[in-house]
Amino acid sequence: MFMKNVVITGSTRGIGFEMAREFLKAGCNVTLSGRGEDLPEAAKNELVLFEGKYIYIPCNVQDRTGLQNLWDASLKRWGRIDIWINNAGQNVPHVFSWETGEIYTENVIKTNLLGMIYGSQIAAAGMLKQGHGAIYSMEGLGSNNMIQVKTILYGTTKCALTYFMKGLARELEGTGVIAGRLSPGMMLTDFITKTPDGEKSEVITDERFRKIFNILGDKPETVAKFLVPRILGNNRNGAQINWLTGRKAAWRFITAGFRKDRLI
């Protein structure tokens, strides 16, 4: 397997950053991206051993021009792009849909859905020219049609993401370019602990939610260690790489009384 060049949107923290680190450990070249002008110092310090193996390109995925620049800059640096991952995501305040403000509503749709579509369009067009490549998008609550009140705007975007990626895989059949989905399960990230404004999220004070999350939740680094080798080894179009399978979830509920690890 030749060394692969990887682009990950929304990769300055959380699962995006942890995947970037795992790809680097596997010998890949990686383009990290985020809305800031530079990679945060804390992230740089964690990647000090990989100097020359990664670059950082600022990119707001709501802007198609920015995503095109992300592709172009990565292509210029690495020569080809083998894997493109739409990971950038946005959450909303934990309130009913009709109580959600216009800005929050627009941001979750523009980031999770429009940004994913733009990224996929740009990656598909570029990969078709080079004759190969893989495009993945990050699923989430709603991808399996589960409805959780006060989260339905986020869930709507993820439900649509799953439909789009299944359709994209169908459109790419026989081209040498593949499309797939990454299903990370429940992770301890800012999506859980903070509101979109950076405040402490009310959801983590809900005792029922805390109980379920402590059974099913994982740290991003745990999930990244599972996802990355499978992404690198996959050549099947339409694949879903799923961390928290039904069997795994059932086993966790059965053994919950014996586990001492708690995330929140």
Q: How does this model look, in words?
A:
The mean pLDDT is 91. The chain has a single domain (5-206, 218-246), classed as 3-Layer(aba) Sandwich (Rossmann fold). The protein is built from 9 helices and 7 strands. Helix 3 (64-78) packs parallel to helix 4 (102-130). It has helices at residues 14-25, 41-46, 64-78, 102-130, 152-171, 190-193, 207-216, 220-233, 246-254; strands at 5-8, 29-34, 54-58, 83-86, 133-138, 177-183, 240-242.
Order of helices and strands: EHEHEHEHEHEHHHEH
- Quick one: CATH class? Alpha Beta
Number of domains: 1
CATH topology, what is it called?
A: Rossmann fold
Let me know the number of strands: 7
**What name goes with the CATH superfamily?**
NAD(P)-binding Rossmann-like Domain
Provide the helix percentage.
40-55%
Distance between the termini: 40 Å
Radius of gyration, whole Å: 18 Å
Q: Which overall shape is indicated by the principal axes computed on the Cα atoms?
A: globular
Continuous helix count: 9
By secondary-structure content and strand pairing, the structural class works out as alpha/beta
Into which percentage range does the β-strand content fall?
Answer: 5-15%
CATH architecture: 3-Layer(aba) Sandwich
Q: Major sheet: size, sense and barrel closure?
A: 7 strands, parallel
Provide the low-confidence segments as ranges.
none
Provide the spatial order of strands within the biggest beta sheet.
3-2-1-4-5-6-7
Mean pLDDT: 91
